[in-house]
Amino acid sequence: MTKLFVSVIVILSLCLPVSAVEYTAPSVPDSGETLMPETTDSFLGGILELFQKACKLIRPDLAASAKVCLGILAATILTSILRSFAGSATALVRATGVVILSLLLMSSADSMIRLGNQTIQELSSYGQLLLPAMTAAMAAQGGAAASASLYIGTAMFDTLLGSLIAKILTPMVYLFLAVGIAASAMEDETLKKMQDLIRGLVGWCLKTILIVFTAYMGITGVVSGTTDAVALKATKLTMSTVVPVVGGILSDASEAVLVGVGAMKNAAGIYGILAAAAIFLEPFLQIASHYLALKLTGAVCSVIDPKGMDKLVDTFSSAMGLILAMTSASCLLLFISTVCFLKGVS
Amino acid sequence: MDALRQYLVGVVAVTLICSIITQLLQGSGCRAGIRILCGVFLTLVLIQPIHTIPDLELQSRLSQWEDAAQAIAEDGKSAAQKKKETIIKQQTEAYIINKAAEANAEVAAEVTIGEDGIPVAAAITGSISPAVKQQLIDILTEELGIPEAGLKWNG
Question: Do A20 and B79 touch (CB under 8 A)?
Fold first, then answer.
């Protein structure tokens, strides 16, 4: 009986789970709580749930965008009618129409720009909390060098992108709008070219940062991953040189820790990606619906009043496109870095 | 960063001013000359401050990120090492208890783990015969690699 009792204890103690330290992703902030999937075990399931919730939430925003667009269409029709009776004062009527339309569009554009910036800040803050958990988990898996390099790269590019967006690119979007309004009012080619330059510059900055970031993460993963793989091999070699029984115990313990930490890292990574998507998706869809509504309105305006207000509407829709690109770039940066951490040590 | 922003605002402001001037001079004879002057002025504004664009202070922040990354990675590594040591300690103790049970002895074991995660000492508690003790000493030294000096017998 005693033997049986001892044997049971021995077997149970050998099967003890590994759970001294937890590598968990920080919980989703309030802004993403409404969209966050209830279970995050399955990535695909989580993404589908996210989209379903987001589609339900987006309906009021679509209605708000439609209202703004109806106002724009009404103003365009009115300007077009007035212009046909204006005679020599066509330029004045045009300028007045541009000012009225700009006022109509500006408040919604401003709120969308602010929403985009707020989302970028929230994504960055969440990334700053998620990053240490992923770094520690990857280091625990034996990828100390790779995790440190990935951490430095992500922190550096996140700061760079965040600073660029907050201090340069967002003011440039406002400048883009100002130049666009002036170009529409005065029908000036120089201003239109300047507008194209600003748009090109914003797009180029975002693309370049993402390309360089992706390249850095890829190269660092390979270079540092090799160093870690060599260190892991050396550790395994040391284990094989000790007494067989102890060697077996050491090997089992290492395997158990690796498997346990790997599972925790995966769960944290999937939760982190879903949380970032939950923070990002609602504002993204809001801005995107506004962008698409403006595009549609611009197309209708070009039919109603060719060479008239459609250029102005296009300017505002392009500004929304730039904000979408900035928000997406920020989210993509977080996704790429999390996936790099998830990939782990080869 | 501020300098870059000022530069961009300056470029746009100059473009706006040039456009307004050329619009005002519409129909005037000197419009072509003014346009050329505006073009030259805009070019000068565009190229003049490029060399003064400051760096983004990434270099100075790099050491901070490096330190933080090293600290986090070390934390992760040491946490994993602690976990590993806990498992090794549990398994080694269980192994000793099991071997004692096979020799019809009931003991409690407390194993000390060294820096490399290898057991270096053990305290065995329980009333055991000299023969079983010798049998356990052989197992502990040969199979677990614990030096005889590191063994402590209680009871």
Answer: yes
